[in-house]
Write a structure and sequence with these properties.
The structure is a homodimer of 381-residue chains.
Chain A lengths: L2 H9 L6 E4 L1 H14 L3 E6 L6 H10 L2 E4 L2 H8 L8 E3 L6 H9 L4 E4 L2 H14 L5 E5 L7 E3 L12 H10 L3 E6 L4 E3 L3 H19 L6 E3 L15 H16 L5 E4 L3 H4 L3 E11 L8 E5 L19 E3 L6 E7 L8 E11 L7 E5 L20 E4 L1
Helix pairs in contact in A: 2-3, 2-9, 5-6, 6-7, 8-9
Cofactor (chains A, B): pyridoxal 5'-phosphate
Pathway (chains A, B): Amine and polyamine biosynthesis; putrescine biosynthesis via L-ornithine pathway; putrescine from L-ornithine: step 1/1
Keywords (chains A, B): Lyase, Pyridoxal phosphate
């Protein structure tokens, strides 16, 4: 909670839940990444929060953009950056969307299988684009991540050389590799392990006459929720050490794709207590219902995965465990129940509640208006 | 898949996933409920699908509306129905929203605790509304339901009389009770069990001089996905028998609130195969990526809860198990993985795929545009 957000909320006159982003925090986060990994290009993962103010700020600071779709490419281009600062980072693309991206001048594409390489090869040929770079994502063990990723993206490391050779054969530039160590990764050894694999794929392809140039080290940089997380500097040092260990003095070009790590701690949701009740006289746990829930921004509480820090006007008063739920007529719209949340006993209907570290994956996860409640509003200050 | 939908899709020229609702199926469903329970008023659960065409059709057929918010009340009123055909069925309401509903003429409100009764009492007094009815939801065991509900809505049955007495004391009409047997309930004994509890609460309050008049039997009526489900007639017979058993010849006014049961089987999503790949040479299971996933309408595949029937242009060809995933750069955007889905081996990139029984809880569960993909489009024919 920054002074600027506190001031904004004090003067706020409208009603309903809102997410407030402090752009100064975003700027500070970008500066931290740039300082921690000075030779690495930062591609902000637009999907985390595509607010134009955030994209404009990052464009101005020199950031590049990792885009999941043509719309995100258009959002990035709207900042005025040139297309060479954009990566089409989704491994799952319609061929017509690849064509659109190529027409916009985008030349960097993620792949993880031969059929995707073929789509790009075909469209690059049609358009006559000569300098199209592809990087292949390989599957990486996510040990140490709070949310290990599924196997959705990436191929087995053994398959990556074949995918890149196929690109080379089709006239594309077999440019490099990518991996993702998992979200909220706090084990810095994870990058070392992935870079071991990456350097061996570099070696395999070099033997076959293909010189890879780039390693995209993905995201996974954590935001502080309730527990402390290592600082960007610590990540930078560990990653640089691993790069040197595996690539010696022939360091590849490197990319990182922070999303949560760039905007998560820059945003706060202000919400209101709609109801506090008990289910029976014997119940020890109260139910606290907010005017925001899983369907309007807090989807990442699914399985109680993220435990957001929550502040109230009554902090300091005696607390008791509460089930925390959203306002919709949907029984899954419950944020914390298995592990109830301690909140002040004095908390009352109508009180404001601040949900911290909600700058990433909230506004975009909101439904279009389930139960007639508006999508999560947001403002950048 | 009706002939009308087939015809519509054959002539469709635009691109991207779409949900098509056949209004004739909705009309047939309403007629089935009306026939199965001729003395019960049907309150359509607007949240399942608030498309204006659906609301207009149901209004014309005589349906009432169960609304979760002021916006849903406004959507119901836009059909031209009078406010006495609307229930504000959410037990979690801001006091200002209760005031708005009262101003619109709504007089039927759900509650499950004394603080909520107080909000309604206060606003009814301010507005001077004399005929405000409240019904209290009690917690009901959901055995037999495919998705037993959480404890989010309702109070313990022992607490319900006190909640309703409180309403009576505040000048509101202690009107009745509600319960919900759980979603996709196929055990018809569930209603009998809930009605046992309801009749005993009626008796308790009668002893205290309060005569309840209404039982809201909620939703829970299933849609056919892959397994067959009992017909509306079977539900009607079982419910009528239970009502007679517990209330004798003094049957209360009754209400049902079908949502999924009204529109689920009326809608079909047309989607496109974006990519088919394998993660390694040894993998037996292919990954099939569609242009729709959890974030754009298929949220109910969470934990693989609903298994939608899927049709392809290649049905009849040899099949093999596939992991089915959505198009976003989000690793949780996977529909079926723990239990892969058998799809034709001949299925190819660019093929159309039909996802059946998707008329309920799809368009409204869609995000505002996660990853830059548009919210799920829909059309009623």
């Amino acid at each position: 909670m920054t002074d600027r957000i506190r001031e904004f909320l004090r003067n706020r006159r409208d009603d309903g839940p809102i997410m407030v982003v402090d752009l100064e925090v975003v700027a500070a986060n970008f500066a931290k990444f740039a300082r921690a990994l000075p030779d690495t290009r930062v591609f902000y993962a637009v999907k985390a929060n595509p607010a134009p103010e955030i994209l404009n700020l990052l464009a101005e600071m020199g950031s590049c953009f990792d885009c999941a779709s043509v719309v995100e490419i258009e959002q990035a281009l709207a900042t005025g950056v040139s297309a060479d600062r954009i990566s089409f980072g989704n491994t799952i693309k319609k061929e017509k969307d690849i064509a659109r991206a190529l027409q916009y001048g985008v030349r960097l594409f993620a792949v993880d299988c031969e059929p995707e390489v073929e789509k790009i090869g075909r469209q690059a040929e049609i358009i006559g684009a000569k300098d199209v770079k592809v990087f292949c994502r390989f599957l990486q063990d996510c040990e140490g991540a709070e949310w290990p990723l599924s196997r959705k993206f990436g191929c087995a490391a053994e398959m990556a050389p074949r995918v890149l050779e196929h690109a080379h054969r089709l006239g594309l530039q077999a440019y490099g590799l990518s991996f993702h160590v998992g979200s909220q990764q706090t084990n810095m050894g994870a990058w070392d392990q992935a870079l071991t694999t990456a350097s061996s794929i570099f070696a395999t392809l070099a033997e076959r006459g293909i010189e890879l140039k780039m390693v995209n080290m993905g995201g996974g940089f954590p935001t502080k929720y309730l527990k402390d997380v290592p600082a960007a500097e610590a990540y930078g040092a560990a990653i640089f050490e691993a790069l040197t260990k595996h690539f010696g003095n022939r360091l590849p070009e490197t990319i990182i794709e922070p999303g949560r790590g760039m905007v998560g701690n820059a945003g706060i949701i202000e919400s209101e207590v709609v109801l506090i009740s008990k289910k029976s006289d014997e119940d020890e746990v109260r139910w606290v219902y907010l005017d925001i829930g899983k369907f309007h921004g807090l989807a990442e509480t699914m399985d109680e995965a993220i435990r957001y820090p929550i502040r109230t006007e009554r902090d300091g008063d005696e607390t008791a465990p509460c089930v925390l739920a959203g306002p919709t007529c949907d029984s899954v719209d419950v944020m914390y129940e298995k592990k109830p949340y301690d909140l002040p006993v004095s908390l009352s209907i109508g009180d404001k509640v601040l949900i911290e570290a909600t700058g990433a994956y909230t506004t975009t996860y909101s439904t279009v208006g389930f139960n007639g409640f508006a999508p999560l509003a947001s403002v950048c200050i």
